[in-house]
Amino acid sequence: PKKSKIIIWAEAIKIEEGWFWGSRSQRNNSPGNLKYSNLTATLGAYLKDKDNFAIFRSEEAGFNALCSFLVMACENRLKPYKNVSLKQFSQIYANPPKGSKYAENVAKKLNVSIDVPIRELV
Predict the structure, then answer these.
(1) φ and ψ at residue 35, rounded to 5 degrees
(2) Around Cβ 118, how many Cβ atoms within 10 Å?
(3) DSSP state string for 52-120
(4) Fewer CB within 10 Å, N- or C-terminus of the chain?
(5) Shortest CA distance to 72 belongs to which of 56, 58, 84, 61?
(6) Kind and range of the H or E run holding 40
(7) How many CA atoms does the CB half-sphere of 111 hold within 13 Å?
(8) Is 90 exposed, middle or buried (0-12, 13-18, 19+ CB in 10 A)?
(9) Stretch 63-88: mean pLDDT, rounded?
(10) Are 20 and 45 in contact (CB under 8 A)?
(11) Comparing 64 with 3, which gets the higher pLDDT?
């Protein structure tokens, strides 16, 4: 079965966020390293760590929260992500260090340009 672009995007973010056994994202069951907020609480986060990263009850719950977050961003329901490209989304979402290939790596997994409007990924 063909995977949705949202799932592929979330899996790419998981990789770019540095998920590995023992990493913050793995310990917090948050493959996207989502920050704790009212929004992430509604998506299932129930605690936060000392640096305000959301903690979910299971990796599946954290992955589903990331997918929901991405859909909301694509649907222009999250103010910082209104009408942005994948590159702009990545800069806002992850604030990657200069020289990082975060957006390019995600775009490659999705088989799209970094300039694609995220609304086209849902």
Answers:
(1) -80, 150
(2) 24
(3) -BEE-SSHHHHHHHHHHHHHHHHTT-SGGGTT-BHHHHHHHHH-PPTT--HHHHHHHHHTS-TTSBGGG
(4) N
(5) 84
(6) helix 38-42
(7) 4
(8) buried
(9) 96
(10) no
(11) 64
| Residue position matching structure tokens 């990545």 | 90
Distance CA 12, CA 110 (A): 8
Tokens 């989502």, residue located: 34
- Cβ–Cβ contacts within 10 Å for residue 119, how many? 15
Q: pLDDT band at residue 80, thresholds of 50, 70 and 90?
A: very high
Q: Is the pTM of this model over 0.90?
A: yes
By C-alpha distance, which of 121, 12, 18, 19 is closest to 70? 121
Q: Distance between CA 108 and CA 13 in Å, rounded?
A: 12
